[in-house]
Please model this.
Amino acid sequence: MRITAFADDEHRGWDHENGLPTSRYFGNAVQVWAIAQDRPVTVSDAALAFNVTPDLIRRAVEDHEWMYLGSGELIEHDGE
Model:
């Protein structure tokens, strides 16, 4: 299954009808993956790993409470 969009936040994680996660739910997966890489990762790195567009990664990062985009589109984490 390829994720091409996000579900509305009202679904609180996953819209089972449409098979889509919310951006925050997906962002949790991106955050865990990014931290587990033990190296700086970019939006492009994450898009390749998750088989999604860079725009979906950007949105997931921007909608997440503890992630943000740094220079060179590095995925940064609060509290590091």
Q: What stands out?
A: The beta strands are 14-15, 20-21, 67-69, 75-77.
